[in-house]
Amino acid sequence: MPLSAPWSAAFSEAWEAYKENTVPVGAVFADATGELRFRGRNQVYSAQTAALPLQHTRLAHAELNVLVQATPTDRLYEGILYITLEPCAMCVGAAVVCGIRHIRYGARDGSIGASELLAAHPFLASKNVRLEGPQSILGAASLVLMTDWILREDSETANRTIAAYRAEDARAVDLAQEWFRTGHLRAVAKDGMSSESVLEEMISALR
User: Which residues are catalytic?
Assistant: First the structure.
């Protein structure tokens, strides 16, 4: 089953982040007509360049790299923010304050995902943000990327995060662990495999 254009674009951004050796999360904003207006990916660990102000900072989450492109006149409340992974507390707050009223995410993040704040915090709850997720195909692919990336760190925090991912989708975590042992994703990333091809391979392997 092919992904919609926004989800395909968001995964493409996540794959680019993976190839940059930073957290593999991607996001896009589609306006009321469905046109993709802004694209972004996590760039916390990317090399810094003068053209991208958030790059190589703690703020360089995928969602913020999307939101920073919008101007005060953009009607963010009319469109949809697509994110491959459930947003953290910082990104939930930033999205709502910037005017986002519809969020879709791919994979639930049982480690630091904070979408529950949309209902728990009085100000955020007053904005009646529509939240949709997880998304089965994109969610599984996102967890494969995230698990592979987190496995590079041998720590208690990494172990807890992977355990949280396993509770969401054990098959995705198993595949990521297998590919991490063989170095498969790192190899195809180095070879320049397209996001479409790697997603197709993931879907086939998860069947």
Answer: 63
